[in-house]
Amino acid sequence: VFTASRVAAAPEDPLFGLAKAYREDPSDKKIDLGIGAYRDNNAKPWILPVVKKADDAIHNDPNLNHEYLAIGGLPDLTAAAQKLVVGAESPAIREKRICTLQTISGTGAVHLGGLFLSKFHPLKPTIYLSDPTWANHNQIFTNVGLNIAKYPYFSAKTKGLDFDGMVQALQAAPTGSVVVLHACAHNPTGVDPTQEQWRAIAAVMRERNQFPFFDTAYQGFASGDLNRDAWAIRYFVEQGFEMCVAQSFAKNFGLYGERTGAFHFVSAPGSDASEANAHIASQLAILQRSEISNPPAYGARIASRILNDPVLFAQWEEDLRTMSGRIQEMRRGLRERLEARGTPGTWDHITSQIGMFSFTGLNEAQVQTLRSKWHVYMTKNGRISMAGLNTNNIDYFAEAVDSVVR
Ligand code: PLP
């Protein structure tokens, strides 16, 4: 029988624990570098001006109601989400080889894909995750009953990609394995393969008949250029891979709490591809129905309005450049300050890494001192959210890092 008192307490989620400690610190110098959400130069959440505009228009729409969306979500959103990720001119769209369901943001998309593979993949494949990866990948894939394994990704020595380690691991992984790839702005390291490296990764995966599962949570947010940030996914589609894509609109629209995202299954080209893809869509719809019935409407309406209106779309691109530009400025500013101080070590990785996060190379003891002595909050693996830095705290942070490194 079930005995409630036998259920052991679970450990606190490390990121939410960090956020709590930050909130409770009374110091006026404190800096939050843990949170994975964009902050403006005053360390405040930023509502994208284009999102505000779309939101106002929706509020004033006399036809708005609160009916359920379809099981697959808002069709205008899912169609636009496909184009955004694979490119409007992609043969995969023309040949009806992609099915898309709106999901509970990127997390829900990863989950739906994991659940689908766990139910329908004939081999119960092992899912290969980068070491390190977004911590939730481990939990989500384990929860749906899949085995997970790691491939090397980050080199502590260069603070860049361990390309050789990664390729060797893929060569050694069983044929047919599923490989989770971060499309851009890898979380937590900020390290992405170059286009040449992506080509080589694709070549190995093709040879080993491996299955890519792309996670794209930062399109447009990383470089400020939506196409550039989608390059790897589009390259794999061009190469004819069958694959999953989990897409989040949390960061690039600043719609974190609205839980807006999409899951795509792309079938490989072939005469029966569109029929096979329709079968997959029908099975995904059943899974979705049993899990969430249908996805939330609010964020989907906002994102859809922006994606489908050329004027709003252009303004969105401008807002993306504002966010990515501020982050790039903070990267340059931090590196400059550390180098000017002669802080021991090399700091070029701060500017070569991309996106929300930087893997600083600070060790756990240094992170601990930053917290206890300097009121700087970051995860113990040395990751900082660049969005937590601004012109008011960057000097103080550089001074703090310099002091703990010496
Ligand atoms: N995947 C990666 C790599 C992420 O970094 C995140 C967010 O931090 C997500 C997925 C999903 O986030 P959300 O569920 O908020 O869209």
From TrEMBL:
GO terms for biological process: aspartate biosynthetic process. It is an enzyme of class 2 (transferase). GO terms for cellular component: cytosol. Its cofactor is pyridoxal 5'-phosphate. One of its GO terms (molecular function) is pyridoxal phosphate binding. The keyword Transferase applies. It comes from the Eukaryota. Residues 29-401 form the Aminotransferase class I/classII large domain. Its EC number is 2.6.1.1. Keywords: Aminotransferase, Pyridoxal phosphate, Transferase. Coiled coil: none annotated. Homodimer. Belongs to the class-I pyridoxal-phosphate-dependent aminotransferase family. This is aspartate transaminase. The lineage of its organism: Eukaryota, Fungi, Dikarya, Ascomycota, Pezizomycotina. The chain holds residues 35 to 440 of 484 of the full protein.
